[in-house]
Amino acid sequence: MTSAPPALPDDPFPRSTSPTADVLAAQRAHLRAMLAAGELDVPLPGVGRTAERWAALAEWGSADLVLGRLAEGHTDAVAVLAEAGVPAPEDALLGVWASASEGTGLRAVATGDGGLRVAGTLRYASGARVLDAALVTATEDGGQPHLVLLDVRGTGVTPRPGTWAAVGMDDSDSLDVVVDDVDVPAAAVVGPPGFYAGRPGLHVGGLGVAAVWWGGARGVVRALTASLARGEASGRAPTPHQLVHLGAASSAVARGQALLAEAAGVVDADPTGDRTTLALRVRHEVDQVVEEVLRRSARATGATPLCRDADIARRAADLAVYVRQQHAEGDLERLGRAVLDAA
Fold first, then answer.
1. Biological process GO annotation list (predicted)?
2. CA-to-CA dists, residue 122 to 61, 130, 150, 306, angstroms
3. What is the CATH number of the domain that holds 329?
């Protein structure tokens, strides 16, 4: 995590109190400009530059977590396609929509020409009205899930406004998307059945998400530092308790940075190794970093910045929601089982 971060555009990533059509169009234009400029072309994981890849993801997360979420999804899709030996489509904003929350997901029926007809509901489809295509899983009766590259701007793919109720990450446009009997050609079926969940890169991708969480935590600490500095410049010296919270939050961020740097080295040393245990441990620890940063930041400043400073309030709300992709005690149970099985 010591590599130089990528340059960010001068204009801030478009946000609003809700993802209006104008904001979504501005986000798409912003991301497409980054794509055209090569700013989304980060190194693939496991080729000796994983720390550089994660530094880019973290920097986007520090700047804006919605930007981080959408940019990470694009880079993850490119990495998954590369792992399958499939080139990414040019000039396309990509994502990965693989949630099967509460029984949702796509069903697949073979069409006889190597293609599939897919239908169902995709949850948490970030960038639902921003992206061009997404990698999604679709399962035939009794079979392993297929991975397909779905044209999300085509006929039969319908985002459902109003299906994201949270304030945090609201502008990520992570809606339910209904897919109504869409024919996917054989050329858009990626890898054999079961490829997505069975590949070595699955958990490495999960570590990339943790890098974005960590970047969001660093962004909160940067905002807290700037707030206290502004107060001191105007004659309101920080209290001893505020300094304690700032110091502890800064140390937590440094701890997360060290963990991610170590994990990047492990991935590069053996790109095809099983990274299940590593990902569970690091994601848990980054989750703990995020929780400490959010708690310390709120206690250091009190309610006023959370209620009157839009940047601080948005960062806190976004991060609290986004980090819950980590499955808390469920993942710790899996980690404990893995540790015991390896004994």
1. fatty acid beta-oxidation using acyl-CoA dehydrogenase
2. 24, 15, 12, 33
3. 1.20.140.10
Same domain? For 84 and 37 the reply is: yes
**Using the 8-state DSSP alphabet, how is residue 168 labeled?**
T
Q: Per-residue pLDDT tens for 189-222?
A: 999 999 999 999 999 999 999 999 999 999 999 9
Up-side HSE of residue 308: CA atoms within 13 Å toward CB?
6
Final residue belonging to a domain, choices 92, 112, 134: 92
C-alpha span between 237 and 249 (Å, rounded): 19
Find the domain containing 68 and state its range. 21-92
Determine the Cα–Cα distance for residues 40 and 96; give it in Å rounded to an integer: 15
Q: Which one of 193, 222, 239 terminates a domain?
A: 193
Instruction: Identify the helix (H) or strand (E) that includes residue 225.
Output: helix 201-233
Same domain as 314, residue 221 = yes
Where would I find the beta strands (DSSP E) of the chain?
94-97, 105-110, 116-125, 133-139, 145-151, 157-160, 175-184, 189-190
pLDDT band at 100 (very low <50, low <70, confident <90, very high): confident
